[in-house]
Amino acid sequence: MKPLNSIRLAGKEVLPLIEGGKGIAVSNGQSTGAWAGAGGVGTFSGVNADSYDAAGNILPQIYHGKTRRERHDELIQYSIKGGITQAKIAHEMAGGNGLIHVNVLWEMGACETILQGILDGTKGLISGVTCGAGMPYKLAELCAARGIYYYPIVSSGRAFNALWKRAYHKFPEWLGGVVYEDPWRAGGHNGLSNVEDPEKPQDPMPRVLELRKVMRGYGLEHQPIIMAGGVWWLSEWEDWLDNAELGPVAFQFGTRPLLTRESPISDAWKKKLLTLKNGDVNLNKFSPTGFYSSAVRNPFLAELQQRSEHQIPFTTEAVGEHTAEMAIGARGRKVYVVPVDKEHAENWIAAGFNEAMRTPDNTLIFVTKERENAILKDQIDCMGCLSACQFSNWAQNEEGTTGRKADPRSFCIQKTLQNISHSEDVDNQLMFAGHNAYRFANDPWYANGFIPTVKQLVERIATGY
Fold first, then answer.
1. Helix (H, G, I), strand (E, B) or coil at 65
2. What is the rounded distance in angstroms from the CA atom of residue 446 to the CA atom of residue 456?
3. Has this prediction a pTM greater than 0.70?
4. What is the pLDDT of residues 199-223, one digit of tens each?
């Protein structure tokens, strides 16, 4: 393989190897500091990061507010305190090597407030901010005001073009680079557009070349493009190295750092990664954000799939084919459905799925009483972790609502990501992973359950394998 040359970021020579920021305590100060200490760019998550007590125990994020707004304010304080804590840990562990970045999601609740609080409380510790999950127009201004580089995450040249024209052209000197996150291969939330087919992955090379073309049009030929999603062995990306057409590039790794000794995920999660097969990670659209996301197939996703399958449209009056009458709810309110759908519903009810829940799209889903109770409790307990949530109908506006009914086909993303980050439960929680996660099982380096340190992983990646 061609030699892996260093790259200049934030005025410093570092390896072109970047740890991807994974939300809610999955990329923390320990993993990030170890990655930077190995000479790369470590990225901790600024999404509801952990704090600790005097004994070093994780402080549970318990909410006492009686209203969503009050709980939302508590979430902001938890997030700022946790982000500052993790940045300090990362900085200390790095020992002056590499760089420290923080990753936030633009569509997370109070993103601007939380990011400002973290950056203002960690002056001199964080050199860059990566941000995706939406169109972060204000990211450049926020970072430039603090002398920190910004790295927008996009999935197309068109998206970057929109960001540049609207806002980024005012702060070109603080654009550290652009992260191209492959929407078919990356883990977590993905930037698929309405015109792209989730079942038909596209080759990233032409898409990244198009991004570079857009950047060159604005005089950004020297800012690196960071390839994220689907990167495993660099030997498979050798044609990207020292490629004059592509310009400077770096590579981001999100899934591989999960399986390291410094990774804070549970032993059960690590063991699960070693057993995955090709196809065990798939795109789905159950997220309350409305984005597609990539996660491991498990009973958690299967139950969400079942909710959508146990679904029929209804009307409140007999209209067209909706002629079959049904009584739903404790009050036996009448609705009208297509006769064949009534048969389906009666079969589900007979099987124990006897509670009908309305969706914002004038459909009914049929779930067990236990599931209905859990859904309603999660919706009531909402603390506003997103700027707009389809599941609870919370929105970060004066009204505190999206204006639509809460959608029982989705789930509380804050609850499940906290649970999988802080427990051994890998079956009944959402488990984000990139589509190459199955390679842990057949990569000879991980034979016999070998789990490397972050330093060993970075050194291994640098060899090309």
1. coil
2. 12
3. yes
4. 999 999 999 999 999 999 999 999 9
